[in-house]
Specification:
With about 325 residues, this protein is an alpha/beta fold. It has two domains: about 210 residues, NAD(P)-binding Rossmann-like Domain (Rossmann fold), CATH 3.40.50.720; about 90 residues, UDP-galactose 4-epimerase, domain 1 (Alpha-Beta Complex). The protein is about 45% helix and about 15% strand. A seven-stranded parallel sheet has the order 3-2-1-4-5-6-11, with helices on both faces. It has a two-stranded parallel sheet with strand order 7-10. The protein has a two-stranded parallel ribbon with strand order 8-13. Strand 2, helix 2 and strand 3 form a beta-alpha-beta unit. The longest helix has 27 residues.
């Protein structure tokens, strides 16, 4: 089997790459050309002589439709996982046009490229719980109406419906995974969970004094990214393509995540955290809570890592990083 992953250098892309290689896939990863490499999350695969021959990186961009067309017809993958996106909700308010170009139209460009293939590849679209926004009901299911509250959410809704349209109009195997928040030690440092674990570890070791955050009352359904990529693959193995909510079914506030991480590191977060209005969204999403009953019934999928495990897993990983930073700082001070 041959798979193409957009966004391979991201959190989900790296975990999915490991998962697919473990299944014996040949994996192609789409990366953008730039003056520097951003492959840290998959570098360990290259260093493994048993795996690096099955992983190939190819240059393209979700904003370049003609190149995507040539790429897909040249590789002829069996499966395409579209994980590439401008994925930061707060950034999407500052860069709405770019976000729509990549997240909305980028998905359309890939679907068009797949439609041009002699044997169209199966397609997975990384949809998001942010599409629900100002939620119409709790918990959210596959049938809950969307009410996006950010340019990112709006772009993802567009991509969601285009995926369904190509499934129904062109008989392409195209599925949406409506993934609720999923975190890991590989999460980008500007996302709130990783921002918290990164800062907590540095504060613990005296490398940082304060942590600045926005809305501590926002509630999210947080799972482990390593669990969620298995759900992506399971969707692609079904006889008929469909859309699935992937979530833990539990919600926790940012404040609860702070409590879990700082108490685990034996600190009181209230001594170090300050609220900064710059980190508030222009339009806030107060609470997201997913119902993954359909995924459990049809796919046989359930999350394995719970909220406490996730927080501690991330805290432990960031403590290792902070300890290495501490060694460097101490050495420079000698």
């Amino acid at each position: 089997m041959k798979a193409l992953i957009t966004g391979i250098t991201g959190q989900d892309g790296s975990y999915l790459t490991e998962f697919l290689l473990g299944k014996g896939y040949e994996v192609y990863g789409l990366i953008r050309r730039s003056s520097s490499f951003n492959t840290e999350r998959i570098d360990h695969i290259y260093k493994d002589p048993h795996e690096n021959t099955k992983l190939k990186l190819v240059y393209s961009d979700l904003t370049d439709g003609s190149n995507l067309h040539s790429l897909l017809n040249g590789i002829n993958p069996d499966e395409v996982y579209n994980l590439g996106a401008q994925s930061h909700v707060r950034v999407s308010f500052d860069q709405p046009i770019y976000t729509a170009n990549v997240d909305a139209l980028g998905t359309l460009r890939i679907l068009e490229a797949i439609r041009s293939m002699k044997k169209p590849a199966k397609f997975y679209q990384a949809s998001s719980s942010e599409m629900y926004g100002q939620v119409a009901e709790t918990p959210q299911t596959e049938k809950t109406p969307f009410y996006p509250r950010s340019p990112y959410g709006c772009s993802k809704v567009y991509a969601f419906w285009q995926t369904i349209n190509y499934r129904e109009a062109y008989n392409i195997f195209a599925c949406n995974g409506i993934l609720f928040n999923h975190e890991s030690p590989r999460r980008g440092e500007t996302f709130v969970t990783r921002k918290i674990t990164r800062a907590a570890a540095r504060i613990k070791l005296g490398l940082q004094d304060k942590l600045y955050l926005g809305n501590l009352e926002a509630k999210r359904d947080w799972g482990f990214a390593g669990d969620y990529v298995e759900a992506m693959w399971l969707m692609m193995q079904q006889k008929k393509s469909d859309d699935f909510v992937i979530a833990t079914g539990q919600t926790h506030s940012v404040k609860e995540f702070l409590d879990e991480v700082f108490s685990y590191l034996e600190m009181d977060w209230e001594k170090y955290v300050e609220i900064d209005s710059r980190y508030y969204r222009p339009a806030e999403v107060d609470m997201l809570l997913g119902d993954a009953s359909k995924a459990k019934k049809v796919l046989g999928w359930e999350p394995k890592v719970d909220f406490r495990e996730l927080a501690r897993l991330m805290a432990d990983a960031d403590m290792k990083i902070a300890k290495n930073e501490k060694i460097i700082v101490d050495h420079q001070g000698e």
